[in-house]
Amino acid sequence: MTIVVTGGAGFIGSNFVLDWLALHDETVVNVDKLTYAGNLGSLSAVMGDPRHIFVKADIGDQPQMAALFAAHRPRAILNLAAESHVDRSIAGPAAFIETNVVGTFRLLEAARAYWGDLPLDEKAAFRFLHVSTDEVYGSLEPAEPAFAETNRYMPNSPYSASKAGSDHLVRAYHHTYGVPVLTTNCSNNYGPNHFPEKLIPLCIHNALSGKPLPIYGDGQQIRDWLYVKDHCAAIRRVLEAGRLGETYNVGGWNERANLDVVRTLCAILDEVRPRSDGRSYGEQITFVKDRPGHDRRYAIDATKIQQELGWMPAETFETGIAKTVRWFLDNPAWVEEVTSGAYRTWIDRHYDRSLVHGA
Ligand code: NAD
Ligand code: TYD
DSSP assignment, residue 118? Predict the structure, then answer.
């Protein structure tokens, strides 16, 4: 049996592929366009593994997706490919509409045609799982209850609006055509292979490089943080047992203000990799201009996935963040590749090109 994972060279996708192959013998066809966020260096442990087939392709290339499904006959398609960074969506929203909305639409079209032609038993077992974000629900006031699956969609950034658009398309393909879809809406992830443009890896990297740790506005914006491997476990569980057409909110029950997150990082680093001058990394914290339209608070009510599917995060914020800092300290070569841009030539330098289809 085979599953297709899109965006499998990104942060969450690479963790998903690595964990999947550690737990299953089922083949993964990993479809990734390798944008700036796609890094085959994150997958070095499975490049060359016959259970991992990497295909460099755009989810918006419908004929190529159709050919790929016909060739590999997946029992499930997991859509993680996306443009994912809010600040980039503010600077240039077009790519977000192109991949997150139009790309998801084209992928759904290819999936619908493939699913429609399957024999009845395979058709019944097929799943299209769409990975989305809590940001589609908008921003919460301090005293408001956490996002439930029934909350109204009120996206505020081009990123969240494009993800909301993709979620609606996925829903419509179930309602209208009967495509067996599942959607997950997860809070902020952190962990290994996280591209250092996002708050946590950026601050770890900047701290160690002696650079400022930029805090937008007053740093009191609140996010719910989930260790990436817990998110991957939730995706596997929803794929296995989620009810068709349903959405599942996934979160860590870990609301933290940004400033507290960065102070926690500094405290860990002060202990495990003290600055040579004996001062605290906290001195590198710098308040900078706020993000336009910055959402104040996200929080996830993960009761549904817990009660229906028995999923709970294994990590607390404290254990997850300690593992994350350790991973970044133990993988300076990965960080160097990413921050220098050298990872973009990774295919040429590290791999036999025959391992990368479509490159
Ligand atoms: P990422 O930016 O690290 O990775 C995205 C991957 O998708 C990259 O490898 C990129 O090359 C690939 N990609 C982009 N456009 C593509 C296209 N048109 N065709 C094929 N591949 C393409 O993102 P991530 O943080 O790993 O997020 C994965 C998914 O999870 C996204 O859908 C995101 O919206 C969602 N999500 C992320 C978070 C988070 O905290 N990072 C939280 C909740 C949900
Ligand atoms: P980010 O990691 O970009 O995720 P998202 O915007 O999807 O939640 O940002 C997390 C929070 O950290 C968000 O409130 C913005 C803030 N932030 C900073 O304060 N400084 C930074 O340099 C970055 C990248 C983010």
Answer: S
Residue closest by Cα to atom 21 of ligand 2: 199
Residue 62 CB–ligand 1 contact under 6 Å: no
Predicted confidence at residue 85, as pLDDT, reads 96
User: Is the distance from the beta carbon of residue 242 to the nearest atom of ligand 1 less than 6 Å?
Assistant: no
Give the structural domain span for 20.
Answer: 2-193+225-253+294-316
- Predicted confidence (pLDDT) per residue in 147-158, tens digit: 999 999 999 999
Nearest CA to ligand 2 atom 23: 199
| Domains: count for the chain | 1
**Three-class secondary structure of residue 198 per DSSP:** coil
Residue 100 scores a pLDDT above 60: yes
Percent of the chain with pLDDT strictly greater than 70: 96
Q: Which residues contact 222 (CB under 8 A, 6 or more apart)?
A: 255, 256, 257, 258, 296, 297, 298, 299
Instruction: Please report, for the domain that includes residue 6, its CATH number.
Output: 3.40.50.720
Dist. CA 107–CA 62, nearest whole Å: 6
**Which atom of ligand 2 is nearest the CA belonging to 159?**
7
Burial of 246 (0-12, 13-18, 19+ CB in 10 A): middle
Q: Is residue 357 part of a domain?
A: no
Res. 346: pLDDT tops 60: no
- Using one digit for the tens of pLDDT, what is the confidence trace for 26-77? 999 999 999 999 999 999 999 999 999 999 999 999 999 999 999 999 999 9
198 lines ligand 2 (CB under 6 A): yes
Domain membership of residue 9 (yes or no) is: yes
Element (H, E) at 166: helix 158-177
Is the beta carbon of 214 within 6 A of some atom in ligand 2? yes
Please say whether the beta carbons of 189 and 231 come within 8 A: yes
